[in-house]
Design goal:
Helix content: 10-25%
Number of strands: 16
Number of helices: 6
CATH topology of the largest domain: Rossmann fold
Strand content: 25-35%
Largest sheet: 7 strands, mixed
CATH class of the largest domain: Alpha Beta
C-alpha cells in the first residue's frame, strides 16, 4: 500500500484535530507522507467537501490512501466505510462525501469499519476521524487487507448525494451550487459535458440568476470590466459565476441555496 495519505476535512487549522489524526497514523505506521487536500471545507458542508475531493482525485498518485472527514452525523447511525476503488482507497463517513470522487474512480470493494480490533481502544462519539478512520488507515498502510477492517457491503449501497447534476426541463437547466470557493465564486452542478449533451453548441448561452439578472458567459475573468459579473467554464469543468476582482457571494448576494438558470439563446 502506498505510504501517501491524502487528507480532506472540515477541521480547520486553529485547533489540534488535524494534528491528532496525523499523530495516530504516524504512531502506528512510520514513514508516512501526508498531502493536505484541504482542512477548510465549510463546517458540516458535505456537498462542498464532495466537490473539493473530486477536484483533487484525478491528480493524486496511483494507490493513494484518502482519508476524508466531513461528518455532521458523527456518532449517529451513519456508517464509517473504507472503499477500494480502481486507483485509490478511501476512508470516510458514508454520507455522500465520496459521491463525486467515486464517479471518477469507480469503487471495487467496500467495507463498514465495524471491527473494533482496528479502532483505537477508546472511541469518542464525536471524533471518529482520530479514533476510527486514522487507525484503519494505518492498518491498511501496514498491509492489513481491507476485508479485515469490517463487514463487506455492496459499493452500490453507498450513500450518494442528490442534485449532483443540473436539472434539464427540456428548455433550460436549473443549476445549484456545489461549492463557493475562497474567492466567492459560485461553482455550479452543471458540467460542460452535461450542457453539451443537451444543448450542443455552448458558444451562445444565457446564464440567468433566480432574480432575473443575466450574467455574460465569457472565457475568463478579464473579458469583463473590473467589478463586473461573469460566467465561465471553470478549471473543474463546471459552470462558475464570479465577479472580476470581487466576490459573487457578496456582490450578487449568492449562497448555497441560490439557483442559476442556463439555456441556449
Amino acid at each position: 500500500m502506498s505510504a501517501l495519505v491524502a487528507l480532506l476535512t472540515d477541521y480547520g487549522l486553529e485547533d489540534t484535530y488535524v494534528t491528532q489524526l496525523k499523530a495516530v497514523i504516524l504512531q502506528m505506521s512510520a514513514g508516512v507522507a501526508f498531502l493536505d487536500l484541504s482542512h477548510s471545507v465549510a463546517p458540516q458542508q458535505v456537498r462542498s467537501g464532495a466537490y473539493l475531493l473530486s477536484t483533487a482525485v484525478p491528480y493524486l498518485p496511483e494507490g493513494s490512501l484518502v482519508v476524508a472527514v466531513v461528518d455532521p452525523s458523527v456518532g449517529m447511525e451513519r456508517r464509517a466505510v473504507a472503499v477500494q476503488a480502481q486507483r485509490h482507497t478511501y476512508l470516510a463517513p458514508d454520507n455522500g462525501l465520496l459521491s463525486l470522487a467515486l464517479r471518477l474512480d469507480p469503487p471495487q470493494t467496500a467495507v463498514v469499519l465495524d471491527n473494533p480490533r482496528y479502532h483505537l481502544p477508546t472511541v469518542s462519539a464525536t471524533f471518529h476521524g482520530r479514533d476510527i478512520f486514522a487507525p484503519a488507515c494505518a492498518h491498511l498502510l501496514n498491509g492489513v487487507p481491507i476485508e479485515r477492517l469490517g463487514t463487506p457491503i455492496d459499493p452500490a449501497q453507498l450513500i450518494t448525494l442528490s442534485d449532483l447534476d443540473a436539472h434539464w426541463d427540456g428548455q433550460r437547466f436549473e443549476c445549484r451550487p456545489l461549492h463557493i470557493d475562497h474567492f466567492g465564486n459560485l461553482i455550479l452542478n452543471l458540467s460542460e459535458a452535461q450542457a453539451r449533451q443537451q444543448i450542443g453548441n455552448l458558444d451562445a448561452l444565457q446564464v440567468q440568476l433566480d432574480d432575473g439578472r443575466t450574467i455574460p458567459l465569457k472565457r475568463t475573468f478579464g473579458e469583463v470590466e473590473w467589478g463586473a459579473p461573469v460566467a465561465y467554464w471553470g478549471s473543474s469543468g463546471h459552470l462558475e459565476v464570479a465577479i472580476n476582482g470581487g466576490s459573487a457571494r457578496t456582490t450578487l448576494r449568492l449562497n448555497e441555496a441560490s439557483r442559476v438558470w442556463v439555456r441556449a439563446l
